[in-house]
Amino acid sequence: MKLGLVGLIGAYGLLAALPFCGQVIRTNAGDAIRTGADVAKKGASFAIDASKCDRFMKEQVGYDEEQALGGAVAVNFAANNRGLYLDYVNASVDQMKSPSNVQFKDAASTKASKYVTVVGKTLALQSSRPNIKWKFGILNNEDSLNAVSAPGGYVLITRKLVKSVKNEDQLAGALAHEIGHVVARHAIVRYQATKKSQCQVAAAAKSDAASAVMDSLGSEIGRKVDPNGYPRQLERLVSDGSAAFDLNQNLDVLTAFSEKTGEAIASAGYDKDQEYEADRIAADLLLSAGYSVDEYLKLLSTMKAGGAFAPHPDPEDRVSALKKYLAEKKASDPFAGPGGAKKPVMPPEFATLQE
Amino acid sequence: MKSLIRSRLALGAALAVLLAGGVAFAKLNPGQKVFVKAKNTKLLAKPEANSQVREILQPGDEVAWESGPEAKEFHRIKSPKNTEGYVFFSNLALERPKPEIFTGGTTKDARAFASSGAATRALAEGAIRYGDKKLNDQQAVAAVVTMEAIAAQVSAGDAAKLVAENGLIPAVGEKEKK
Hints:
With 355 residues, chain A is mainly α.
């Protein structure tokens, strides 16, 4: 049985009602903590204070942690969407750790990816996070009309959506929306909430009932998580008093959290307010770059509710909200800009991809 | 270029009427602090895209707004070094870009972040191990690593070239190390 994010929140909700929430749980310092049940048995000096789990929502996630999470989410997206539209030279995993070892072929796919990257960077360089390392790619998914993003500056668009855009303005619109999610750190907000709920699960592991929840988390939170490794790593991370997780050194926690984050983004989507915010940021970027916001509105209008960008709010509502925002922006922002009139023609490499 | 800008202005006016219902444009006061938002923003001697570059500004730089929009959507500003000149409207924002945060709560403004090396870091080691050990999908790892390598090759200069070729707004300067 898989326990989704909803399940985790459910578990948190249950635990929040239990009387021991907020109590400090202690075990013998130095003891290896393997499961929640072990925590309950050993008692004493290893502290997990549930009341301190709030720190995971209060303290911002650093860029290094964001990049580690986002990298794993991006790998997950690639693995679940038939990879990326790229021709690369195979390299060993060790070789991949050094960017200078990476070689790619001078193929149409490389040119198309570069083109998407140039359009994406043109927008991202004008965002409120212009200096993070923005990465853009094309997922080899020809079934789903979608674009996704991951923390740290990863933006991916499916081949089906690539085929459906009519001009560069519409491509820019789809990319700008995903840039908006990264700029506003929407996935990170979810990640923080999951950290908090998991912290509370770990803190509540004193009771038998909660221990059972804790024991099951290892096998349920992620498909590829070591059921022993996850609880041990999680408890160590939530016990050290820092809000930061060193995800590179805790593979099971990285696995669990990146899979949950990726699943939440790809399946459930963001909440409506976050989608509207991403649309507003997209409009800002399009205006600033000189792309036509009208073309983005057209792209949204062609999408059916429950179809393209399936988890998103109703397209008609998005178009309506965006028009209202643009009117307000004109009145309040002297640097709003007029928007673009020209619809740039897409290069041949990209046009080929659309056939 | 003139006809392009004229057509943009015409579209802008049309959009303003269409979308804003003829609302008044927001006003700025001379001396008001505004912020540079785009990388490698050119501070120009004249309100012309090809004018002499007096200074290169970076995101987060606080500048004093003097007047505008003057000719063709340029605003006259004074830089932190008291250099006066013109910048394009889309280089500016009313709010300062948020600083990037690092583990431990250290913050870096846009200028410091850009020179920290974090912006050029490759795919995280944990992500490589996740794809290799947990997903057993080395191809997915290779694909993302390649995407990162391509991203590293695309500079702000490439973006500026696209802008020039497609008649977009020249908001981002081309000066950037690859």
